[in-house]
Amino acid sequence: MRAPPSCPRWALLALALPVLALPVLALPAERLALLPHGEDHGDAALEPGDDVHSAALELSTALRFYGAAVHSLYVTTNGIIAVNEPSSEEKYLGQFPVSFGAIAPFMADLDTTDGRGNVYYREDSSSDVLQLASDYIKRGFPESAFDPSSVVIVTWKLVAPFQAPGEDHTLEEKRNTFQAVLASSDSSSYAIFLYPEDSLQFYSTYSKNGDENISAMVGFSQASTNYYFWEKPGSYNVIANDEDSIRNLYKSSNAGKQGIWVFEIGSSSDSIVPAKISSILESIEPNEEDQEMTSKPFTSDYGSTEITQQYITGSTDSTEEDQHLVTYSVPQLGAEDFLTSYQDVTGTPSTESFYSPQNFPTAKAPPRQFRIQQFPPQPPQVIDVEEFDETGIGICEYHSDYMKYKCLVLFSTVFRYHTDVQQTCANNRHQCSVHAICKDYPNGFCCSCIAGYKGNGRQCVAEGSPQRVNGKVRGRIFVGNNPVPVVFENTDLHSYVVMNQGRAYTAISTIPETLGYSLLPLASIGGIIGWMFAVEQQGYKNGFSITGGEFTRQTEVTFLGNNEKLVVKQKFSGIDEHGHLTISTEMEGRIPEIPSGSSVHIEPYTELYHTSSNVITSSSSREYTVTEPERDGVASTYTGAYQWRQTISFDECIHDDSPPSAPATQQLSVDSVFVLYNRDEQILRYAMSNSIGPISDGSADINRNPCYTGTHNCDTNAVCRPGTGNRFFCECSIGFRGDGNVCYDIDECAEQPGLCGSNADCNNQPGTYRCECVEGYQFAADGRTCVAVEYVVNHCQRGTHNCDIPQRAQCVYTGGSAYICTCLPGFSGDGRACEDVDECQQGHCHPDAFCYNTPGSFSCHCKAGYRGDGFRCKLDVNNLKQKHCFHICHMPFVDETGAKTNIHWGLFCSVVFFPPEVEKTKCQHEREVALGSGGAFFPRDARVGHFIPQCDEHGHYLPTQCHGSTGYCWCVDRDGNEIDGTRSGPGVRPPCLSTAAPPVVIGPSVRPDTVPLPPGTHLLFAQSGKIEHVPLEGNNMKKSGAKALLHIPVIAYDCVDKMVYWTDISGPSISRASLNGGEPTTIIKTDLGSPEGIAVDHLGRNIFWTDSQLDRIEVARLDGRQRRILFDTGLVNPRAIVLDPVRGNLYWTDWNREAPKIETSYMDGSNRRILVKDDLGLPNGLTFDPYSSMLCWVDAGTKRLECMNPNQLGRRKIIEGIQYPFGVTSYGKNLYYTDWRRTSCIPSGDQALPETHCCP
């Protein structure tokens, strides 16, 4: 269709605009909505606080996480869902991974006190909610057939950051809202993170451990595996860990819609798999095979809204009559191009952690940080010159006489990539692009792109291939007469370029409405990208061919009329590892105000670019037309103008002295300029078509060639080759095959196996391929060869060394990954195995002192009747008792021959001092009687055949007594009574346990009432499906040292082999593991119902257990062999079980609610009888104390801890009022019991003593 000859060109464009504004394009973008939440939907609300976590949320369907099944979760204030009970926030905030395992949609120091937000959570299996979760998952994994059976929904609503005293109060009113949805089936689980628009108002929080802000963290962390003396960290994946990537969570996506992030977190695989559905690109990459005068619709699925695109096309042949109306036809930019998010421009999420699925950050590949370039302010200086200085740097305005320039000097630095030392291609080939050749010159080397590629040699891209540009924008701009500037930081800029047509689309997001409309005239902010990839006429070069996308640009814009000025600084940093150009932009100054809702029209324009050494300058004047919103049916229009001056500084190779391949002055022609601001999305968009060639008034015939005007019908991945007149042909770009009109990608990886060499994977990409080193390898300095990674690990710091425990040895880091182990003073060995040195054998104490050896040390104590520190002892004269004299008289002596000899006699008087008598023990008294009563100085010989008791140094019975004449041996109790069934044959000593409490050691460092425990002593206890251990120091527990050992429920310990045994009702199974490390081993896994209590016979080497489902008690060898049933009758719900191996007795509780009881029998199953049946409720834990021969139990029904001697009548209540006791054990003088609501320990004695809270 022809326009009338008198119709101006801008009028034709205005007529075309209503055609583009189709109703379907006006549909608003669908806003992200959270899944239903709140107390109205059955949610539980977390208690307000700064560091709060929920009780265990038991799951009806197990969550699959890193390949393992998780049956309960903990919800926390601090934006995480913990797999195990979390530690206090000081131990994990600012660190990742976390030892307890977590799913972290926004881990930070959050605070909900005083009504500052809420945290809601629930498990839901309603069909509506399951369908919503399934829809989100299929958005990210469209091929998945996942059908969830339950979901966990956790919502952090309007939560606040923790505020320290004196901290910046600008954060006080900021709130964040986000949601995590965990969906599970029987075989797999998915996580969905939802961040509504503008829901994240802060991105870091104050650190309680230091005066700094810590960025929030998004990711996944597998729980650590704890062994007795070391901890093995689990795998982890980081999604975002810096403010830029956190800020973009609600703008970006890996599932095709802003704010939605979907991950497969558990199935048969033990890794986290992110969704790989990037935002659609078709809205800005139209297929223009059809160049007929028709409208061609294109539909794409963006969210749930169907978007249709229309393109206005036309013939490349036109008559002279209408050439002044449309010199060439370009597919017009539809309004829907401005409605799609900036992701549509880039095709990748803004958050750099997700730029490439292959580079998903893991524990071995931390997330990349986006570096923001800063520009120092440089005041401009205006000078006048009569002739142009070829080496000067300035913005020069061209005058008609072509002999005089007015220049604005902005930079005085020229960047060059040569050094004082001559460089050659031999050792600098890596500075050139892989698609370039390197050539040596007398003073250095230069790079140049090979045929089929464009660039400066250091950076090369395939001819005709579409390009993407990503970057950040910041600014401080005054609008109109407003005294307050509009300030914005880290705003995203994304651009897409159809290179073979010179079309550039640029989008700048998050521009406030007060500024967005006023920036519409400044199309050249994105126009620099159009200049870089402008269509090149023969013999001319665009910006990328000259600079390779590595340059700085400084621009001054002066608005005519009010003389407002705006300075724009931009830095292009070349192509990143994703194949995208990177840019940073700063803007500062004042611009005229354009009313909200106005539209701006910019006529086509031209610019002259003059190139000298390392510098390109240009200037131009622009006019723009503003149409304000209608008022009373009338829309006012006015025209504005500004001057645009810019200087581009770049790094060129100075060693190639051949003549320039392009003229010093070139003309950029810009056409089809569209600008639009979307107030709903706060996105500013520019679009334009660009070509570069000679200075022309438009009459030259070359300007009509479709290759130079972009009106050809070549594929977007093809190069247009101009012929004579309007003739041209299409040639597919490097990496593509086809006839030029249609081009297909070449899969280099499939066609050339081994292309990337050994230890590398080849990933095909459009038009090219990418080599990536396999796990454990990295690129060498040449950027091509994969070499093994040498990890430097401080094993001492990480606890992965093989030194002995810290109580006996220390690990000394020696650099790199090396370390040495040394034993602590008081121990000997190689550092990996250290033994205690018995200092008492070395004679350190005084002869009149007792020496007591302790692990790593010893103590000396003067004997009774002496005083001192043990190293020096003196007779205590205050305790002298009496004086004796012995008379030695002459007496006859008969020698060996039988002759009598007289010995001289006289009086010899010896004074002997006796200390106070110490009362003899029972053992000492019986021994003295057995030996006779001859006295201390002249004892009689023992009578032959009589038994003589053996006592230790403290007068207690030795646990093993033997008859000196017969050779029989047996075990005795603390009173010396023989224990039934322990007598052995002659020459055989039975293994007997000491029944006497350890001696009371008197000294300055040990309390008189305390038995010191050796270093490294730990208490093992089970809770929440895991075994934990806590260090014991004296009679106290070191809470801070408590940690998980194994994730199992009920435990027993073999002190001989240092093995832990446990039952697992979920299996069901019985397993064991060594405290010295190693993998757990299942020893029994058949014919089990619900194994509960378990006990180890360390003497007989057997295990005993109760089964509350099969109602029986069984026994087997420690390895599970020779299994047999002891009892399967008279049991209703057997629970706890303990042994007295020395006496051969077995004890167990029966949790029969109608008739609870505690029973006993011999360990062979004989002599079964009931010990306790009255006044019982729910007897849970059971323990036997060998020192006191007391059987103790905790009862969750009566809420008491009681003890009794099984051989006597009567019970003793130790403590009452316990909340919910579960397990109990004894050690030394203490009883330790667990409480499901709180954990406490209590020392046993003649009277009940106050509780001591001891376990975390």
Automatic annotation (TrEMBL):
Mapped LDL-receptor class B repeat ranges: 1058-1100, 1101-1143, 1144-1188
Pfam family, one: G2F
S-S pairs: C962-C969
Keywords assigned by UniProt, alphabetized: Basement membrane, Calcium, Cell adhesion, Disulfide bond, EGF-like domain, Extracellular matrix, Glycoprotein, Repeat, Secreted, Signal
Signal peptide bounds: 1-26
SUPFAM superfamilies, A to Z: EGF/Laminin, GFP-like, Growth factor receptor domain, Thyroglobulin type-1 domain, YWTD domain
UniProt domain Thyroglobulin type-1: residue ranges: 920-992
Protein name in UniProt: Nidogen 1
GO molecular function: calcium ion binding; Wnt receptor activity; Wnt-protein binding
Subcellular location per the Swiss-Prot or TrEMBL entry: Secreted, Extracellular space, Extracellular matrix, Basement membrane
Positions of the NIDO domain: 105-268
All residue ranges annotated as the Nidogen G2 beta-barrel domain in the record: 465-702
InterPro entries, A to Z: 6-blade_b-propeller_TolB-like (IPR011042), cEGF (IPR026823), Cueball_EGF_LRP_Nidogen (IPR050778), EGF (IPR000742), EGF-like_Ca-bd_dom (IPR001881), EGF-type_Asp/Asn_hydroxyl_site (IPR000152), EGF_Ca-bd_CS (IPR018097), G2_nidogen/fibulin_G2F (IPR006605)
UniProt xrefs under SMART domains: EGF, EGF_CA, G2F, LY, NIDO, TY
Record GO biological process: canonical Wnt signaling pathway; cell-matrix adhesion
Domain of life: Eukaryota
GO cellular component term, pick one: basement membrane
Domain EGF-like: 703-744, 745-787, 792-835, 836-874
